[in-house]
């Protein structure tokens, strides 16, 4: 190769690199140009995701850091990889994003591959008209009356759990695993009408598949990172969210159960029954409710077996990890805080005495201190450290001149708000008194968001305390047992 060609190649390479650098620099000036307070990026590759990507901080810790670094601004900009994203810190503005201006923020931006992976076509991932129609169809299945009917199934699981613990006498117990097994039994009974008996059989297939669907592996981390950088690429490459074993398992379970029930004319007060009823008959009256402004076209979404399976699957996924970690963290904190444990025991004894040693759906409403304890767990350890909303039309931030563009990722920093001393006096302690009536009244709304808020609030919120058993188990176990940390906890 002659000198001219070499020089030409070097010059071309320099020009390309300089141009790429210019584009990157321009991208990272995004918030500056919009005149929005922002955090300088620590890395042109990862942006603010760097400390999380390198394992220096957990996802929750890195979001807490961002929340604190952006103080005292009401909102501010960051970069996730190269994507400019907005962090909303001010509770009043949070209310706008989640509730008041919901029509500008109805999308969660979840990647899903619905044409080639129907199991991902569930409520959490759906958007717009399709989300609205399915949400409206499913909401009545979570009404107080329907949950009350399921309470008997939860009670069965609680009784079994108490027996299992009793049989272990004074043995040390790995509570996280036991709570996961208990939660699987509750959800599979309430959602699918199946007795999985994971409490007795730790290797039950249901538990194995649930854990497989949720456990992070190197491959799932790569997929998540790729999805954050370019969802379109993931879609183009047809990368699946769940492996075939999990998909086939859930498809088979729902299909076989539906067929068996139809053939044998079986009716059971569980979620699967309620959803298959909806499949047969559209509840057209409730479908006319269109208060949040999203167009609703009831004919556009037919509840096929695939769609029913996807909704049962999200009930399982949505309830499994969230509820079992809430229970484990509650027991962990009770073990560390004898004062709280004692107070809880007194509260539960009071209610049990009043109801002649019987726990019922109604008596659960009266264990006020137990509610405070569970809320404090959800404050300190929210299952989801932030909410995501995609700005679906250009949006002018109230009382400012800032207009954020359609497509902007908007984050609600749940973990940051829950650990802000301005709203919670003892942010790093386990302090159920954060949830006395006076304390709740004294802080702004939209600062305690373990279940999200607005039209996309967790559909299972009510079922967590009441039917799916967090409240029931905490009450019954507190009545019978005390907890303390064992030598393996390292504390
Ligand atoms: C301690 C237990 C739970 C916690 C902390 C929790 C938390 C959450 C959060 C933070 C969201 C997002 C809300 C938003 O974007 O505003 C959510 C959504 C959702 N959750 Fe839960 N959840 C729990 C239990 C459950 C249970 C038991 C179920 C099923 C029965 C469930 C089903 C769902 C579904 C389907 C959505 C999507 C709702 C929609 O987009 O319309 N969750 N949950």
Specify the structural class.
Answer: mainly alpha
End-to-end span in angstroms?
68 Å
The portion of residues assigned to helices is 40-55%
The topology string of helices and strands comes to HHHHEEHHHHHHHHHHHHHHEEEEHHHH
Q: What is Rg?
A: 25 Å
Gross morphology: globular
Quick check: average pLDDT? 84
State the strand order across the main sheet: 1-2-6-3
Largest sheet: 4 strands, mixed
**How many H/I helices?**
22
What portion of residues belong to β-strands?
A: under 5%
The count of DSSP E runs of length 2 or more, i.e. the number of strands, is 6
So what's the oligomer here?
Answer: single chain
List all distinct small molecules, including ions and cofactors, that are bound in this structure. Answer: protoporphyrin IX containing FE
Low-confidence stretches: 283-297
Binding site for heme: 458
Pfam families: p450
Membrane topology: Peripheral membrane protein
GO molecular function: heme binding; iron ion binding; monooxygenase activity; oxidoreductase activity, acting on paired donors, with incorporation or reduction of molecular oxygen
